[in-house]
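Box 3.1 A note on notation
Throughout this textbook, protein chains are presented in two layers. The first layer is the amino acid sequence; the second is a token string describing backbone geometry. Keep the layers aligned when reading.
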Amino acid sequence: MTTKLFEGGNVFKGPDKEPLTQRIATKDVPATIDFIEKATGLDFTKELDPDDKKPVKWLGTTGRKEDPDGTFELNSSGDLDLSVDANEVDKKEFQAKLVAQFGKDSVKLSGDSVHLKTPIAGDQVNGFVQADFMFSANPKFQQGSMIGGRGSYRGEHRHILLSSIARARGLKYSPKFGLLHADTSEPLENGDDWNTIAKQLLGQTATVKDVKSVDGIIAYIIKLPNYDELVAGARETLGKQGIELPVKEAFESYVPGSNAWMRRMINIVK
């Protein structure tokens, strides 16, 4: 049986407001999504991300939290976030189909999502996890937007950093719509394409891979002369959460021949 660690914020609660769903171990994710695919008739696993080889329709940390420390907290997810193409699947019809199979108490609708109280690995003896079917008319952008956190940064921190860079470049960034014109909030041409976003915000040699994580974004822009300007907004916002972004001097100190590197060498030989 899966270890139970209840997660706050889920939509399924009992009479005393106690959560009816729990975290799911990473090892149990494939079997649970296989159960979901058989119940819904939808595919969530075939198309893989070229970098981590995980299904692109598994959003956020779904099936991706694999830490060598072995603890349940770092090898589990609070729920299952799954991408659904709203151009192909009608949300209301999909909700009705789930209600017919699982009952109205196991299905809820909120915003762009349909939620299902899902038996882990298809067996309720293991407990239940909340599956969030997240509908989008632009699933490719959604899949690139809803990348889970990596290292010490969460997914929301990545959006804060991208927004900071966009403002510094006279643009707006939206986790739901992509790049927008700052003055009108109208979409930028191809602004919901992650290749465009990478090049507009980081530079013309940047690729999708460079904007997938905070560490990747920092590694690219810390070499730029206006690095501090680009991260100023993010540094202020994240600083309130006790999160610090790397400073440029720390990066330069590892570049042979730079002023900071020379100062470091002088200090070493003193």
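Confidence is low (pLDDT under 50) at residues 1-8, 250-254. The first strand starts at residue 24 and ends at 25.
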